[in-house]
Design goal:
Strand content: 15-25%
Helix content: 25-40%
Largest sheet: 3 strands, parallel
Shape: globular
Structural class: alpha/beta
Number of helices: 3
Radius of gyration: 13 Å
Order of helices and strands: EEEHEHEH
Distance between the termini: 19 Å
């Protein structure tokens, strides 16, 4: 059975009082998103990351570090449920 992992990475970081997107906040030597991705990659290589308005910054980071993931764009920030729906729908098309 191949496990599909969907990481929701559309947070803006506004409640963290930062201009940096929430997924790119640092935890030690890596961003929160990298830490989550590295843990998920131990479980499955089939990883999708749902991103929002900061998609370019996030995808650039992953390409620069040669990390392999399928990126899905949540066009409108309509909440967590909609982000998950975006990841599921695009994975099943």
């Amino acid at each position: 059975m191949d496990i599909e992992i969907i990481i929701l990475a559309g947070g803006s970081g506004s409640r963290m009082n930062s201009v940096k997107p929430k997924p790119l906040q640092r935890l030690g030597s890596h961003t929160m998103l990298e830490e989550l991705y590295n843990t998920a990659f131990k479980v499955s290589k089939n990883i999708s990351i749902v991103v929002g308005k900061d998609s370019k910054i996030i995808t650039d980071l992953f390409y620069k570090k040669n990390l392999d993931a399928n990126f899905k764009i949540q066009k409108e920030p309509n909440g967590t449920g909609d982000a998950l729906k975006t990841g599921i729908e695009e994975n099943n098309e």
